[in-house]
TrEMBL record:
It holds the Pfam family HTH_20. InterPro entries: ArsR-like_HTH, HTH_ArsR_DNA-bd_dom, Metal_resp_trans_reg, WH-like_DNA-bd_sf, WH_DNA-bd_sf. SUPFAM superfamilies: Winged helix' DNA-binding domain. The keyword DNA-binding applies. PANTHER family: ARSENICAL RESISTANCE OPERON REPRESSOR ARSR-RELATED (PTHR43132:SF2). The lineage of its organism: Bacteria, Pseudomonadati, Pseudomonadota, Gammaproteobacteria, Lysobacterales. It comes from Luteimonas gilva. Residues 1-95 form the HTH arsR-type domain. This is Helix-turn-helix transcriptional regulator. PROSITE patterns: HTH_ARSR_2. Keywords: DNA-binding, Transcription, Transcription regulation. Signal peptide: none annotated. GO terms for molecular function: DNA binding; DNA-binding transcription factor activity.
């Protein structure tokens, strides 16, 4: 991943509502959620949510698919993993370390 792409992805997450939406979608897994359920769970107005989902989808952090009359949004794990790999690329000065995007670490206090 190029630095410019990483900056674009980080900018997409650098807003409280978008970060909350993205985290919720990551928790939901590949099945994702319809926009209405996202709005309900996060107590966001539909117009505000629509704007933020557009921004997240534009960056490639989320993807949308049509299911009947609903638009289902899900996190793009491939994009998320690429960003995490970019951020940890030079971890531990090139020495082997325990950083992994596929395992959960203890939360930061």
């Amino acid at each position: 991943m190029k630095t410019k792409a990483a900056v674009s992805l980080l900018a997409g997450l650098a807003q409280e509502t978008r970060l909350s939406v993205f985290r919720l979608l990551v928790e939901q897994g590949p099945e994702g959620l319809p926009a209405g359920q996202i709005a309900e769970r996060l107590d966001i107005s539909p117009a505000t949510l629509s704007f933020h989902l557009k921004e997240l989808t534009h960056t490639g952090l989320t993807q949308a698919r049509q299911e009947g009359r609903f638009v289902i949004y899900s996190a793009s794990y491939r994009t998320m993993d690429a960003l995490l790999a970019f951020l940890t690329e030079n971890c531990c000065a090139g020495a082997a370390c325990e950083t992994s995007t596929s395992s959960c670490a203890a939360p930061i206090a």
